Amino acid sequence: MRLKRKLHNSSITNLAILSVMAAIEIVFCFTPLGTIPVPGIAATMGHIPVIISAFILDKKYSMVMGLIMGTCSLIWWSTIGLGNPIAFGFTPFALYGNIFSLEICILPRFLIPVVASFFFDFFRKKVGKSVVFSAGISAAIAAFTHSFLVLSQIFLLFSGNEAISEQLKGSILTVMIIPSIFSGIAEIIVASLFSVVIVKPLNSIGRIRK
Q: How much is the CA Rg of the chain, to the nearest whole Å?
């Protein structure tokens, strides 16, 4: 009975935190608050709540956060961003978009908390590093993995389409991939810094998952 009550309380806590993190994710996705204010770089902070959730929520709940991020991104690219020339890479509803666009939009984002959780546990439990260090390095790895999966798939799946090159007025590599690399670097740095700053006080009050 005591174990059931403990599990019930844990589920309620996870759901409550998930709700808050999901609300933050939605705000970051659909408002300018989710944009990194760096001149000339189109980087976002939508991955931050997802990564943080991997450190404070049970794994199945953090995976839901990844799915929420992917869904929010799909909605954004299918509505607000549909007129953007690069929308084909993130929504099947855009010109030249297809089923692979759907996968590119959702799967890499779904995997963010999976990667963050894995490396957080690895550095913390196997390597014996501190919680703060483990959070910082695993956040960077998760952000890098996300950017790599998105950009590599767009290049491999769409770079041979001449119609897309005409639409972009240049190749996917020069117009889309290379500029996105700089955005990805900014997102990796921000993910690591935010994780360190947020996890440190959370760890002091015992809010980091075991």
A: 18
Q: Report the SS3 class of residue 44.
A: strand
Query: For residue 210, is it within any domain?
Result: no
C-alpha distances in Å from residue 86, one per residue of 41, 69, 99, 175, 185:
15, 19, 15, 9, 19
In a domain, residue 209? The reply is: no
Read out DSSP for 46-81? THHHHHHHHHHS-HHHHHHHHHHHHHHHHHHHHTTT
Our count of domains for the chain comes to: 1
Looking at residue 101, which CATH number applies to its domain? 1.10.1760.20
Structure-token pair, residue 178: 């290379």
- The pair of structure tokens assigned to 21 is 């993190």
State what percent of residues in the chain have pLDDT above 90: 77
Give the model confidence (pLDDT) of 167-200 as tens digits.
999 999 998 999 889 899 999 999 999 999 999 9
The answer to whether residue 9 is domain-embedded is yes
Report the C-alpha gap between 18 and 16 in whole angstroms. Answer: 5
What pLDDT, in 10s, does the model give residues 46-63? Answer: 999 999 999 999 999 999
Q: How many residues does the chain have?
A: 210
